[in-house]
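Quick check before the chapter quiz. The format below is the same one you will see on the exam, so make sure you can read both the input and the output lines.
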Amino acid sequence: MPNEPTPSFQVGDRVIWWKQIPGGGYAYPVAATVLKVTANRVQIAGDDDGQIVKRSVTPESLQKEDAAQPERELTYKQGQYLAFIYNYTAINDRPPSEADMQRMFRVSAPSVHNMLVRLEENGWIARTPGQARSIRVLVPPDRLPPLQGNR
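Here is the expected output.
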């Protein structure tokens, strides 16, 4: 991941692969298993939208699966923000803006910003400072609640 130290990987490690979209940026996380490690690349196999894919990727695009182990349970609203970010990113090939979340949840801009700060502090998302639309969900997709819409 950008601006983060690259961990060492071993065959059999469970990792999160940050699939890149054309033109740069990270689209969405894919759970994967390390198959082979070389000096500059890591071969992985993962489930990408129902298809098992094998890829040779850079270590910077991976993180160990246990890196995002939240200490607390998600609240309903936190889960909804994470589900929205994940689904929006999968559909639109880029993460949502804070304005997109403001419209979705019908809240003020400071409310969205404060929620993102809390999610980041708890290790549930990562953002690249100074880069717009850089939100990455660190919670595995199978642990996200279904998106319910507005409440």
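If your answer matched, good. The chain has two domains: 14-67, 76-143.
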